[in-house]
Amino acid sequence: MTRFVLKRLAGAALVLLALSVLVYGLFYLAPGDPARLACGERCNPQQIAQVREQLGLNESVFAQYLHFLQGVFAGRDHSTGTSVVHCDAPCLGLSYQSDQQVTRLVLERLPATASLALGAMVVWLLVGVGTGLLSALRRGGATERVLTVLTLAGTGTPVFILGLLLLMAVCAHLQWLPFPSYVPLGEDPEQWAWNMLLPWITLGFFESAKYARLTRSSTLETLAEDHIRTFRAYGVGERSVVTRHALRGAVPPVIAISAVDLGSMFGGAVLTESLFGIPGLGKTLIDGVRQIDLPVVVGVVMVMGTAVVLANVLADLLYAAADRRVVLT
Prior knowledge:
The chain folds into two domains: about 30-90, no CATH class; about 105-320, MetI-like (MetI-like fold, Orthogonal Bundle). The protein is built from 13 helices and two strands. The termini are close together. The chain is about 75% helix and about 0% strand. By secondary structure, the protein is an all-alpha fold. The model has no long low-confidence stretch (mean pLDDT about 80). Helix 1 (about 1-30) runs antiparallel to helix 13.
């Protein structure tokens, strides 16, 4: 098991290194002058040259990338024009617009994204797995048809349309909830939970359709295996067959994909965050793109990529732990 974990972590480290090269090169080698973007359209050539020197853009791209890696692992100093700011590791750079450390900006926005992703995961697991299991056990009946229609509707409805419908129905028409306004968990846990309820339902219901189909197909496949027929032939109760044996065989792929989707949510919930005004990483990335703030864009993309890579490693480990048939090599 230790060897399996070390190999996965080594592979993840190589992927992250390749990701850093790709992301850094993609943004800093793209057409355009980062110094002009940072300085603004009204800057004259002398001001642009001064900004280029302050940002270290007069060095080669390879040297800039090495400085970027140095900041990630050991920290580095940044010039703001009037002073020198030390950025502790892991340093992802300094914002062009606010001179704020990108790492600090990410850490401020990370709790909002994490709370959205974790809450949505609970919803999609409860709704998706429950619906898929019920649909498999009621195969061929009216219940399965209704659940199939609902899952297809959930898959085909864009997340922003679903969110708007919920806002109009729950907040405007029925007035069961006030319009969401993000409140940090540490300030008011109860208000935080009420304001996050609709975003959780929106994102969780949108994802639950996939898990319903996956759970249904995995459960039906497991119920058709020889050992399940053997259990039934020996008189084992149907509830025990389903809960102790069939569901156990259907759970590993759900666990694996949930881990991957959880990592993807750290960067893939842009529409949900924008719709409900959640100040998370997705909204930060959109703001960075609008302001052409390259350090913020590169830093947030790197954090999102790291979350996806680590989620894949976690998915491999969970799948191996849940399914003993997996060979740990």
